[in-house]
Amino acid sequence: MRKSTEFQTAAVLADIRPGGAAVVTALHRIDPLLRRRLNDLGVAEGSRLTVRRFGPFGGPLTFECAGQLVGIRRFEASRLEVART
Amino acid sequence: MSDYALLGNPNTGKTSLFNMLTRSYETVGNWSGVTVEKRIGTLRGKAGRIVDLPGLYSLLPLTEDEGVAARFLMEEADGPILNIVDASQLERNLYLTMQLLEYGKPVMIGLNMVDVARARGIDVDAQALRRELGVPVVPIVARKGTGCSEVLRGLGELGRAPASFRLDYGPALEAAAADIAGMVGAAAAAGATSKADPRWTALQLLEGNPAVRSALPQTADLAAIDERIRRAAPELERETGGADSAAHIRQVRRQRIAEICGAVVDRSAQHDHTATERIDSIVTHRLLGIPLFLALMYLIFKLTFDWLGSVLSDVLDGFISGPLSQWISYALTSLGAAPFTQALVVDGIVGGVGGVLVFLPQIFILFLLISFIEDSGYMSRITLLMDRTMEAVGLSGKAFIPFIIGFGCNVPAIMAARTMEQRKDRLLTTLLVPLMSCSARLPVYALFAGVFFVSNRASVVMGLYVLGMVLALALAKLFSRTLLKSEPSVFVVELPPYRMPQLLSLLRMTWEKVKGFLRKAGTIILAGSVVIWFLSNTGPGGFGVDMNDSFLAYIGGALSTLLIPLGFGTWQAGAALITGFMAKEIVVSTMNIIYQAPDMAGLEHQVALAFTPLQAFSFVVFILLYIPCLATVGVIRKETSSWRWTFFSMGYSLALAYLVSLLLYQGGHLLGFV
Q: In principle, which of A85, B36, B613, B635 could form an S-S bond with B452, CB 3.0–4.6 Å?
């Protein structure tokens, strides 16, 4: 039982619907350059993110972290592991 | 006298503060990466000089412009540091502050955007922050100049004592840092000049900063240092369980920052950026976003070419070709000037330079509108909207910022490419920016569109801009598939809150750019006009020959056979193209002189006789594409540090121009156009 709840809450950022919030659990699958930049912007393990919107035609995803808006591609967002809150 | 270094995160208002502190008018904008090169200014009151450096998040450089700041700290910085931090983003901003406090120089904090923070319900206690960091903290609003005199006074009282702030990284890393600092210090004592504090240098090395490592003095024993860094990892692991020194250092800093923010920031009344959210829900809407962007671009062209710009240009043309020419002729006659001098001044200089100056209003309006986009915060939204398209051709959406700046002038546009994270993106953007139709090409379009495409001027001109953009994207695809095969591009962009640009600052920014155009008119276009006038009046037969026997006709004629398939195989067109390499506006100057036009109407009449509409279209397309101007070639060489890429950029654009014009002209012919 416990296992299945964990499965439900573990997700990637690209799965979160606009308006939904999540906490970053792992960044290691992201491109190293991008990971550094996200770190610079204060996005690290444990940061709380809110997804704002998806761009047109599979375009970038915008999320908010500590009052700051950041855009990254959906592909990268699908490698950013989060836990739903 | 001291040299102060101005450092802070991107888009925190460094350049605004720099302008306020120094009376300069450097370009400011609301996106990351406005400043890509260091700039030096003299402080008001002559208390010293201040260096404005590109924004950076930490001292580990990721992009070229960030490298500028890191190298400056290693090699040149010798004085106190003025660190500007964004009060509404204190947590993220303090990360750089931690590293600057360790740097071993006096530090002062300018706590900027306290108004923005307050508007969002974030209250930062400057006094508490001063106690936590142990350095002076001055609350400011750089955009309005609030607090700037306190900053100036504070800098004067800063003294020489280094910041006393110190973080404890735990026994393992502290021991390693002390050992490495000893080695670096010994190397410095051996006569090498390093400006940086040894402990700071040691910590940066433990963090793996490549810029700091490569800037170590020659005498430093790199092998021993690297060995000590390696030895730190197992020691750290015994102590904390993790062996990554860099991650540990970051974590210690982050933890301290969290404590500081807990003590100084009151977020109890915090709320979202409601206005920004509302604007974004429209302009980055998944269906409306791109159409709105295109509509905005069309509006810019309408304003520049139809509604406002061309009307003002006509007024200016009336003045230059009418009263001004008459006054000059009258003055020259009454001074007893020889007919030769009169012809040189009136036909050569007034014709050449004046013919270009006429377009000043259009160029002013275009730059004003681009400045508005830069300063409002819309620029980074454009990258978001265009990223999908750019990704498809192998570029990052951020490449669109240089592209848009390129509509004003290619030179700063190529420099703006520095802010991209990947080398491939930077190089590709640098090579393709020249296809963005800059304001110097605008006079040529305005002239030809005014003759041949009067009823749909703005659409034809916009078509040319779109053509340049489409070709740039197609070539990006081609080059990223062939020449620059490498990893896919990455994209990450910060979206700052929107703000209403202030009219005065917009006008100043625009004026700074227009000044560049005027300077060009007074130097290279003036000189070019004089040379062209001489070449068009002298020939093998001496001075005063018929223009068709002039040197200019021979030079242009040599090229003209090559241009016949493109529809404009005349020596006049050939001559204009050659001279246009110096600066694209000179194409119009040359035509003014060659066709001896008294004013715009006269020139338009001559041009209408010399070209058919199809030939004219083929000609302007060729002008759009054929070669980066001399100044752009210079900056391409500087940014790529390679003559090969520089010649490549000239070569491919010539080939492209020839091919596209050929297809247009021959294709148009077959379809029955003339």
A: B613
Identify whether the C-beta of residue B533 lies closer than 8 Å to the C-beta of residue B352. yes
Beta carbons of B410 and B629 less than 8 angstroms apart = yes
Q: Which CATH number fits domain A2-84: 3.40.50.300, 2.30.30.90, 3.40.50.720, 3.40.120.10?
A: 2.30.30.90
Do A40 and B57 make contact, defined as CB atoms within 8 angstroms? yes
Q: Could you report the per-residue pLDDT of B273-300, keeping only the tens digit for each? A: 778 888 998 999 888 999 999 999 889 8
Q: How many CB pairs lie under 8 A apart between chains A and B? A: 106
Chain A residues closer than 8 Å to B63 by CB:
none
Strand-pair partners of A22: A49, A84
Q: Which domain holds residue B318?
A: 292-483+508-670
Name the one residue in this structure whose structure tokens are 């398939």.
B565
Taking an 8 Å cut-off on Cβ atoms, the answer to whether A40 and B422 are in contact is no
Computed from CA positions of residues A9, A14, A17, A20, in that sequence, does the dihedral angle turn out positive or negative?
A: positive
Q: CB distance from A26 to chain B under 8 Å?
A: no
Amino acid B28: pLDDT: 66
Same domain, B172 and B80: yes
Cross-chain residue pair B92–A66, CB shorter than 8 Å? yes
Dihedral sign for Cα B94, B96, B101, B106, please: negative
Residues of A in contact with B65 (CB under 8 A): none
Give dist(CA B456, CA B474) in Å, integer: 26
Number of domains in chain B: 2
Distances (CA, A) of B149 to B4, B350, B587: 16, 46, 49
CA distance B498 to B30: 8
Same domain, B562 and B479: yes
**Chain B residue set in contact with A, beta carbons under 8 Å:** 57-58, 60, 62, 88-89, 91-92, 95, 120, 122, 250, 254, 270, 272-273, 276-277, 280-281, 284, 286-287, 289-290, 380, 383-385, 387-388, 391, 397, 421-422, 487, 490-496
Residues of chain B with pLDDT under 70: 1, 25, 27-33, 36, 189-195, 486-487
Is B490 domain-assigned?
no
In our burial notation (b when 16+ CB lie closer than 10 A, e otherwise), range A12-49 reads bbbebeeebebebeebeebbeebbbbbbbbbbbeebeb
B318 and B466 share one domain: yes
> In angstroms, rounded to a whole number, what is the distance separating the alpha carbons of residues B322 and B250?
68
- What confidence tens digit (pLDDT) does each residue in B348-392 have? 888 788 878 888 888 889 889 988 998 898 999 999 999 999 999
A contact test, residue of B116, B490, B493 with most A CBs within 10 A: B490
Give the per-residue pLDDT at B1: 53
Would you say residue B56 lies in a domain?
yes
- The residue written with tokens 């000037």 in the block is B337
Scanning B58-197, the segments in alpha helix (DSSP H) are 64-75, 90-101, 114-119, 126-133, 148-156, 171-189
Residue B281, in any domain of the structure: no
Q: Specify the CATH number for the domain of residue B97.
A: 3.40.50.300
C-alpha to C-alpha distance for B496 and B312, rounded to whole angstroms: 35
A53 contact B CB<8A:
yes
What are the residue boundaries of the structural domains of chain A, listed by start?
Answer: 2-84
Q: Select from B91, B492, B494, B499 the residue whose CB has the most chain A CBs within 10 Å, as the one to mutate to test that interface.
A: B492
Q: What angle do CA B66, B386, B64 make, to 5 degrees?
A: 15
